[in-house]
Design goal:
This protein is α/β, with parallel strands linked by helices. It is built from 7 helices and 5 strands, in the order H-H-H-H-E-H-H-E-E-E-H-E. It is elongated. It binds FE2/S2 (inorganic) cluster.
C-alpha cells in the first residue's frame, strides 16, 4: 500500500502539470522511492489517484532504464560503456566491478547490496571512464577509486533516488 508520503508526492506532481499524464514519471519515481522498485500494487494505486490506466504507467517502467519492474540492490552502479569511456578503459573498469562484486553486468549481489547496470553514454564524457553510483558522478575511474566508492556505499543507507549530496558530481 502506498504510504501517505508517496500519495502526497503524487498529488504534488499532479498539481505541477496541466495534465495527469505529464506527472507519470514523477509518480513512478515516488513509487520506486517507497518500494525500491516500481511495485505493481504501487503502480495500480498511483494510477487510481491519477485517474489513468495502470498500463500507461507500466509502459514507462519498461521503457526507462532508471525505473525498475523488479527488486534491485540497495545501491545502483551504472558504469558507462559507451565510446568515450570505452576508449579510456571502461571495459576493464566494468570487469573489475564484476569481479569484485562476484556478479555479471545486469545482476544484483546475492546479499542485495549492489546492482551493476552498465549504461550507454551518461553525458559526462569528460569524466571518462565514469559511472553514476547512487546518483553521483564519479570519474575518471581507477580500481582504487572504485574500491573507495564501494566501501563508502556499502556503509550508506539504501539509495532511494535522492539527488546526489555533492550536487551530482565528484572527481578523482
Ligand atoms: S561515453 Fe561515457 S559518459 Fe559519454
Amino acid at each position: 500500500m502506498l504510504s501517505e508520503e508517496t500519495v502526497q508526492e503524487i498529488r504534488a506532481a499532479l498539481n505541477r502539470y496541466p495534465r495527469p499524464r505529464s506527472a507519470v514519471l514523477d509518480a513512478l519515481r515516488a513509487v520506486q522511492r517507497q518500494y525500491g522498485y516500481c511495485h505493481p500494487e504501487g503502480i495500480k494505486e498511483a494510477a487510481e489517484i491519477m485517474g489513468l490506466d495502470p498500463n500507461a504507467l507500466q509502459m514507462l517502467v519498461t521503457f526507462y532504464d532508471m525505473l525498475y519492474d523488479h527488486p534491485v540492490g540497495e545501491h545502483i552502479l551504472m558504469p558507462c560503456k559507451n565510446i568515450a569511456c570505452f576508449l579510456r578503459g571502461s571495459d576493464q573498469m566494468i570487469e573489475y566491478l564484476s569481479k569484485k562484486l562476484g556478479i555479471k553486468p545486469g545482476e544484483t549481489t546475492p546479499d542485495g547490496t549492489f546492482t551493476l547496470q552498465p549504461m550507454e553514454c551518461l553525458a559526462a564524457c569528460d569524466l571518462a571512464p565514469m559511472m553514476i553510483a547512487d546518483g553521483a558522478y564519479h570519474g575518471p575511474l581507477t580500481e582504487e577509486r572504485i574500491d573507495e566508492i564501494l566501501a563508502k556505499l556499502a556503509a550508506s543507507p539504501r539509495y532511494r533516488g535522492e539527488p546526489a549530496p555533492e550536487g551530482g558530481a565528484s572527481r578523482v
